[in-house]
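#help-structures
NK: newbie question, is this the right format to request a structure? protein is Reverse transcriptase domain-containing protein
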Amino acid sequence: MGRSLSAEDVSSSVQDSKNGKAAGLDGIIYELWKVLDARFRAAPADARGTLVFDVTDAMRKVFTDVEDYGLPEGSRFAEGWLCPLYKKGERSEIANYRPITLLNTDYKLYTKILAMRLAMVASRVIHPSQAGFVQGRSIADHTKVTSLLLDLAEADDQDGAIVALDQEKAYDRVRHDYLLKILAAFGLPPRFVRAVANLYSSAHTSVMVNGMLSSR
């Protein structure tokens, strides 16, 4: 996890991305990165032997700079734009809107690389009681266990209760400083933790309402 990024890491992230996804503020879609990557792979040099533009290596250099030094002031690399979609109820209540944030595709390509690296060790550091968001696990297993416990209680004529808890706005409640300490406590390489910290420290969101974009 702590090794430097390679052009192959970037290329794999590009090829694994899905077409037809909305772009972020820079307007660049995944398909453009795929075309540029495929063009270089098909012909790394022109008829005169001059190397053509290698987009994956260029992105590798950018991503490596982000890991090592963070983002420069004013960079919009980690900036997203949020579109509040009305769900139901009173339109003046913000709770009745679903926030959808669109991020730049190069940013998502980089975070996908980090996510793939994290997935390699997640099952070893996250307790088996958590089934969600861990590769190789399924919440269907927990559903089955719950069903079996109900059958057991009924067969033995035992009293019991099931408590279901759902924390409101769970993602919004995560403290970034605490998260970084957890990553370090789990023994993740300092380079990986630093990369996550650099992204969080530079993240901003603007809100799009009636075609107008707010300030950060």
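mod (FA): yep, format's fine, and the tokens are attached above. The beta strands are 79-86, 97-103, 204-209, 212-213.
NK: thank you!
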